[in-house]
Amino acid sequence: MPFFDNFWRQETLLTIVSLLFLLPGCHVDKQSNYPPETITKSNQEFTFNLYKKVVQSETGNICLSPFSVSFCLGMIMNGTEGDTYDEIRQLMGFQDFTREDINRYMQTIRKELSTADTSVTIINANSIWINNRFNVRKAFTRLNKKYYQAEIYNEPFDSNTISKINQWSADHTNGKITKPVQQIDDKFLSILINSIYFKGRWNYEFRKSATIDEPFLTADSCLINTPTMIKNHYINSYRDEKVTVAELPYGNETFSMVLFLPTQKDGDINEIIAHLDKEQWEGWLNNLSLHKFELHLPRFKMEQKINLEKQLKALGIKKAFIASLDFAQMCQTEKFYIHSLSQNSFIEVNEEGTEAAATTVASIIAEEEIASNFPAIIRFDRPFGYMIQEKNSGIILFAGKVDNPKECFLNIKPE
Questions:
Q1: What is the pLDDT of residue 21?
Q2: Strand partners, 290
């Protein structure tokens, strides 16, 4: 099938996108007013919107987990009211649902996702670190302990607290995210954290002996040689005049990585991502079919930190970054706002499978602080995208774009 001849090239922007989708058939509390599938469909657009906004605003390799951002925002939402609460709920696609509906949904998917495939390791952990000079409402911590299983810590917010937070992140990401917090302020009310860790082996692994250096054409038209994995197998794939898609399953095929790149060699992966939404994504998946071909995929490993305030503001969360009394569900003594919301992430794709992790950190601060502004061969030899999904539910755990597999560690910005 010659139309698969030219699958891969260019510079890699790696974005790990994770989204909240409920696994079918899981138990739902009878008190919930909506089936989880309804909330999933409403929430799904957030993943694609954040993915696109990050790709648009960042250059080079990108690694992102919207799934982790969603859990962090969900915990924040339990401490807000008024315009801030409405904006967060709207952004996440939850505008038609109550706080209780949302909390029960997040509780259920967290539980069900971890048991979807026993051969795949999934860890999703939450914690809330409270400055002990503030009195945080017990109702806020109680909600997040019940629905997010959040661990609650009261700390003096000094250098020792930084060490404790970073150790917590390392413990819940298999040592992959070790320093998500570099500094702390005694004016911080709280720091809310979500960590996600994924490790899955390919259903059919690549042979290490088959990996060879092959050319990869970067986005800036530089030709580099990079270690490239090769296997000849039946692979779920789809191709039209604009995009070529290949799906690689993990374990018992509950989870998979979906790779995509422009069909034409002069196509732009950024253009494909810019127009990607849940309808187009579902169209790709619904049209996948088995083809036997030789797949060429770069081996890559990267880690990154992204500050997400700019992207979240552009997507509609504005009031949360302005000091107000909207955080009264968290603390009633002063005006607060989101000081920062960032994510550290990691991914490694090799012959055995994929290991990925992300830690999202949001800090809430008091007002007196100044706000911070089907061919014979498919070659992944040019910029391409990918997503890791749980197939039955449609949950997208990670999504990304690779522009340059050799420069994955050069995208870590110094503090």
A1: 28
A2: 236
Q: Count other C-beta atoms under 10 Å from residue 72's C-beta.
A: 22
Question: How far is it, in rounded angstroms, from Cα 36 to Cα 32?
Answer: 9
Q: How many CB atoms lie within 10 A of CB 159?
A: 9
CA distance 151 to 195: 12
Distances (CA, A) of 346 to 10, 39, 145, 303, 329: 21, 28, 27, 4, 33
Residue 261 to residue 6: CA distance in whole angstroms: 10
Question: Other CB atoms closer than 10 Å to residue 215's CB: what's the count?
Answer: 14
- b/e for 325-356, b at 16 or more Cβ within 10 A? ebbbbbbeebebbbbbbbbbbbbbbbbebbbb
Q: Which residues pair with 243 in a beta bridge?
A: 262
Which residues of the chain fall below pLDDT 50? 1-32, 369-373
Q: Which of 211, 204, 356, 223 is nearest to 297 (CA)?
A: 211
Specify the length of the chain in residues.
415
Enumerate residues 6+ apart whose C-beta is below 8 A from 221.
none
397-406: buried (b, 16+ CB within 10 Å) or exposed (e) per residue?
bbbbbbbbbb
Q: What is the DSSP letter of 218?
A: -
Biggest alpha carbon–alpha carbon distance for the chain: 67
Distance CA 27, CA 125 (A): 20
Q: Report pLDDT for 23.
A: 30
Rounded Cα distance between 340 and 189, Å, is 12
What pLDDT, on a 0 to 100 scale, did the predictor assign at position 59?
A: 86
Amino acid at 180: P
Q: Is the dihedral of CA 198, 354, 395, 128 positive or negative?
A: positive
Full-model pTM: 0.84
CB of 214 within 8 A of CB of 381? yes
Distance CA 43, CA 19 (A): 8
What is the model's pLDDT at position 60?
Answer: 87
Q: Are 29 and 95 in contact (CB under 8 A)?
A: no
pLDDT of residue 368: 65
256 SS3 class = strand
d(CA 372, CA 67): 25
Measured at the CA of 304, the angle between CA 87 and CA 40, to 5 degrees, comes to: 40
Distance of CA 236 to the CA centre of its chain: 23
Q: What pLDDT sits at residue 51?
A: 94
